[in-house]
Amino acid sequence: MTFPFFAAPEREASSFVGFAGNRIDRQAENRTDDALEAALADPRVRIMQTRGGRLYLKLNGGGFGAYFGLGEARAMGAKLDDAVLLGLSAAGPVVVAPGALEPEALPDGIKAIDHRSVYVQGLVGEETLGELAQGAALLSWHRNHRFCGRCGGETKARIGGYKRVCAACGAEHFPRSDPVAIMLALRGEKCLLGRGAHFAPGVFSALAGFIEPGETIEAAVRREVLEESSIRLGRVVYHASQPWPFPYSLMIGCFGEALNEDIAFDRKELEDCRWFHRDEVRAMLAGTHDGGLSIPASGAIASHLIRAWVEAG
Q1: 38-52 pLDDT tens trace
Q2: Closest alpha carbon to 239 in 185, 295, 164
Q3: Which of 46, 54, 35, 27 is nearest to 93 (CA)?
Q4: What is the rounded CA–CA span in Å between residue 236 and residue 241?
Q5: For labelling alongside 254, which of 53, 149, 156, 237 has CA 20 to 30 A away?
Q6: What whole-number distance in Å separates Cα of residue 25 and Cα of residue 89?
Q7: Is the pTM of this model over 0.90?
Q8: 239: part of which helix (H) or strand (E)?
């Protein structure tokens, strides 16, 4: 018997977004307090280094390499005591460590490139980009949880970086991902797009907002669209998700059925918000829009939502 909820493409939509190519075997059931030390002792270990939201990349035959051997990392002063173990790749253990050097102090042939540019410019492969999302999110979480939320005592990393334990009260703290709903409201041949003041000139995107405690994904989608645009939604369907290491979010992409068209957008949240006809969005995708308008970079889940809708018409 074939269940109707499995009637979907074998490669789900989430696999096409940026930061989603992670193939690491996380070995979650085998993590021990010495897991990081064991990984660093493995001659196959590969170490990524990131500092200040920038990934260290070395020139490698006209391209870029994101991995360093243990000797290379130590020579650069990598903070291996604060590293996190991602798991096992086909080539061996992968570790992400905080870098010690500012960009101007890096050795010749090594650059520090901000994470967003790494993915927008396609400087590394899909698997490496996925590993970066995992490692950058974990390191950000550790930086923000050095002290216990229960008693204020200092916490220490355990099991390769997947837990922090308070030395004072023994409380255990685990890494988190902040769920964010991102949605494309649709009505007939039109979709709803907005732009924030911080967007690049001419870029419009899907609306988005954090999912609050006690809220379903669908309820968050309806609430955010109503709050930001005064558009009421009926049916909501899930499309894809995306790890988003800024600092540790999970973007949950949905489509929503708009029940009205009259927009009254929140100017504290948005600089502009309007309906776009499918043909106009096609021009935005093709780079031929009369007003020079465009959508986010192709790796962003907002871009995938918009493209999926355009291609369905």
Answers
A1: 999 999 999 999 999
A2: 185
A3: 46
A4: 15
A5: 53
A6: 6
A7: yes
A8: strand 233-244
